[in-house]
Design a protein that fits this description.
The structure holds two protein chains of two kinds. By secondary structure, chain A is an alpha+beta fold. Chain A is 52% helix and 17% strand. In chain A, helix 10 runs antiparallel to helix 11 and helix 12 packs parallel to helix 13. Helices cover 48% and strands 19% of the residues of chain B. The longest helix of chain B has 18 residues. Chain B is globular and about 35 Å long. In chain B, 41% of the residues are buried. Classes of the chains: A alpha+beta, B alpha/beta. At the A-B interface, helix 10, helix 11 and helix 16 of A face helix 1, helix 4 and strand 5 of B.
């Protein structure tokens, strides 16, 4: 029903569910929204978390490195401290275990000197100096026996402190050196044992060989004077370009320049360090990083200095890689989101379209269903008044029959007119029947139908009508046609329709003929029945629309235009087809094709069971359908 | 075997004009006919008087044809019913047959057709008794 209602008739067109196209939802907008949502709620948090982790890891690794750097300097300091302490103890031991008189003897002094140097040539010279500041004895490469040290800084210091380690100084020998002096008092008389240490030793301790490219390790005193030779920026005994005052505390790390308040202590890896974060974000860093540690005695500063980029080169590389991975990940996810969302949107669009189509179909079906209901209601309503009309008619007829006094003409006319009334009511009834049939097509079990028998029944029904119009019906049946699966009653309906149309096609012609042929069509595996008439025929333009519902060429009041469309639908339901050929003025031929199904046992069993039910149906149909 | 007497008929239809006409027409043809206009009256009158065939309209306000049929058959299982219908639903028809209707005829009725059905219904009733 859906099918033929959609055919291109006026009404058909109107009935086709055509409303304005559903407002095309903005799919690009939807997609944008989805992508935005995905990005905001998944990618962005990911990015944020990624960055947080990165920064945390960054500052952790940085502070670890810094700590390591600092420990290096402290370790070195310990070595230097230990060396100096050792030397100091050596001299003190010598001074306290040997008397002045013993040491004044140059041979003894020599002995002691070699003893002191047995493990390594730490000492350049060794001298015993009187309270007046003059050498009593001396062993060493310099000519110092007549030198007066009473006014020198170290002399004053050792007199005051008892033990003194000096900074680097030139002294009388005009070479950079430093001394360890120990004061001893014997019998009220003080004397000093003084040793000079090789500055090179200090240098070897400080180990400037085989260091990283920009690494420098050296000692400075409290005034910032180099006590050892640095690799860069100066020489021993020169002023180091360092802000010695900044080196506070026992030890620490300093960054020069904008990083200068890195702080004296190792940054706590547990908490966020703003400087490190700033560095991570804008990569601004000091040129050099300086670790320092103060020696106790003498008060020297051990410094390890290196270019920032060299110290943290590796870490930076790792960190950069992490950052790259993080961002690639972000972009990858973003792209995947977009693609996936795009795909999803497409799927949604497709589903929406399917849903819309389905909806449209449903709307169509329901429209047709309500039309059906309407039709049925109308038909039903009309049947009642029709019934009354008929009975009134009959009452009058009865009356007329019984009346003897009426004139012959009067009676004839009355009977004729009442007959007309009857006929017209009959017609109305047919219309409503058609309408009812149109509005309900229900499933019914089918059974095997004898085509010839069905046609014969119908011809029998319509013979009288054909005769009265001067139309002759001739039959040409092929005998023993195979039975076809179908609905007998409805098949008869189709022939009623075709044959009555054929009869009506002779309207205005004094005589005519209808020829009905049945044949088996083995090529198409079915039966063919043709109804040919010699009527007025159908014009070409009408031919195309002849099966459309509500399409009729009959004048208003005759025919609903439903007959052929119902026939078409019946035949289609049975799996066959109707076609038509016509020549204007000459006649029309309708051809019906009905397929044969191979009968197997299962089928016939089914039909046997259905037959009894079918009989009931047939009876019901017969009484209702006329 | 043709019966001697003519069947006693009961018309049940809410269309007053139609029932009146039908009553007239059937009486003229020699039947003993009564007419009522709703289901309740029909059930009452069959208790009071004897009827052979009931001509029952299917679509009536209040009790419709099928429920009248059901109760009628309970009270008087031998009574035959012909149902008039203006709205031909096959399912309805089937239900009617299951409940014991003799036959259907659709409105607008053909008098000859109805008479034939009444006669046949009456014959069946006689045979059963």
């Amino acid at each position: 029903m859906v099918r033929f209602m959609s055919e291109q008739t006026e009404i058909g067109k109107r009935l086709e569910s055509r409303g304005p196209d559903l407002p095309s939802r903005s799919y690009p907008k939807l997609m944008r929204r989805l992508v935005l949502g995905a990005v905001t709620f998944s990618v962005l948090p990911l990015l944020v978390i990624g960055w947080v982790i990165y920064l945390y890891y960054f500052q952790f690794s940085m502070s670890r490195m810094v700590g390591y750097f600092q420990r290096t300097v402290e370790y070195k300091r310990t070595i230097v401290d230990s060396f100096l302490g050792q030397r100091s103890s050596d001299i003190q031991l010598m001074a306290s275990t040997h008397s002045l008189s013993f040491l004044s003897n140059p041979a003894n002094l020599r002995q002691i000197f070699h003893l002191l140097n047995r493990e390594g040539s730490y000492y350049i010279d060794l001298g015993v100096i009187s309270e007046k500041g003059k050498h009593i004895a001396y062993i060493g490469p310099y000519d110092l026996m007549d030198k007066d040290y009473s006014q020198t800084f170290w002399f004053k210091e050792v007199i005051a402190k008892g033990v003194f380690i000096s900074d680097m100084f030139l002294g009388y020998r005009k070479e950079p050196h430093f001394i360890i002096a120990v004061l001893r008092t014997e019998g009220g008389r003080p004397w000093i044992l003084r040793a000079t240490i090789y500055p090179e030793f200090l240098s070897t301790l400080v180990e400037t060989k085989g260091l990283a490219r920009t690494k420098d390790v050296f000692l400075v005193n409290r005034e910032g004077i180099y006590q050892t030779n640095p690799r860069f920026h100066g020489k021993i005994m020169e002023k180091a370009p360092l802000p010695v005052d900044s080196f506070t505390g026992e030890s620490g790390i300093l960054g020069t320049g904008p990083f200068s308040h890195f702080g004296p202590s190792v940054p706590d890896p547990g908490i966020f360090n703003i400087d490190l974060i700033k560095y991570a974000l804008i990569q601004s860093h000091p040129k050099e990083i300086v670790a320092y540690s103060w020696l106790k005695n003498p008060q020297w500063l051990l410094i390890v200095k290196q270019d920032f980029s060299e110290v943290f080169g590796d870490i930076n590389r790792v960190n950069t890689i992490i950052l790259i991975l993080l961002h690639s990940g972000f972009f990858a996810i973003l792209i995947v989101s977009i693609v996936a969302t795009g795909h999803m949107t497409k799927v949604i669009k497709k589903r929406d379209k399917e849903a819309e189509d389905l909806n449209r179909q449903l709307m169509q079906a329901s429209k047709l269903a309500s039309i059906g209901e309407l039709a049925a209601g109308v038909a039903h309503e009309i049947n009642n008044p029709l019934a009354v009309i008929l009975t009134e008619n009959q009452v009058i007829l009865d009356l007329v029959e019984g009346e003897k006094d009426l004139g012959k003409e009067f009676k004839e006319q009355l009977e004729q007119s009442l007959g007309q009334v009857d006929a017209q009511v009959e017609r109305c009834s047919r219309i409503t029947q058609n309408l009812l049939r149109f509005s309900r097509r229900m499933a019914m079990p089918s059974r095997y139908v004898d085509l010839n028998a069905a046609v014969e029944d119908v011809v029998g029904l319509l013979e009288k009508r054909a005769d009265s119009r001067g139309v002759n019906i001739s039959l040409d049946f092929q005998e023993n046609l195979p039975k076809i699966r179908g609905y007998e009653f409805e098949l008869e309906q189709v022939f009623v329709n075709l044959i009555s149309n054929a009869i009506d096609a002779h309207e205005g012609k004094p005589y005519g003929s209808i020829h009905i042929v049945t044949r088996q069509d083995s090529k198409r595996h079915g039966l063919v029945a043709t109804v040919t008439d010699s009527g007025w025929g159908i014009s070409e333009e009408d031919l195309a629309r002849v099966f459309d519902p509500f399409y009729t060429t009959k004048p208003v009041g005759q025919g609903t235009g439903l007959g052929l469309s119902i026939s078409y639908s019946i035949i289609r339901q049975m799996g066959g087809g109707i076609s038509v050929r016509s020549e204007a003025g000459k006649g029309t031929e309708f051809e019906i094709f009905l397929p044969c199904q191979d009968s197997d046992s299962s089928d016939s069993e089914q039909t046997r069971g259905e037959d009894s039910k079918h009989d009931l149906y047939e009876k019901a149909q017969a009484t209702l359908g006329r | 075997m043709t019966s001697m007497r003519k069947p006693k008929l009961l018309l049940v239809d809410d269309e007053i004009a139609f029932a009146a006409n039908l009553l007239k027409l059937l009486s003229r043809r020699g039947y003993e006919v009564s007419a009522v206009h709703d289901g309740e009256s029909a059930l009452r009158i069959v208790q009071e008087r004897e009827f052979d065939v009931v001509i029952l309209d299917q679509n009536m306000p209040g009790k419709d044809g099928i429920s009248v049929l059901r109760e009628l058959k309970k009270k008087q299982p031998n009574i035959e019913v012909v149902i008039l219908t203006g709205y031909g639903s096959i399912d309805m028809a089937l239900k009617g047959f299951e409940l014991g209707v003799y036959d259907y005829t659709s409105k607008p009725i053909q008098l000859g057709d109805l008479e034939a059905k009444i006669r046949q219904a009456f014959q069946r009733k006689i045979l059963r008794e």
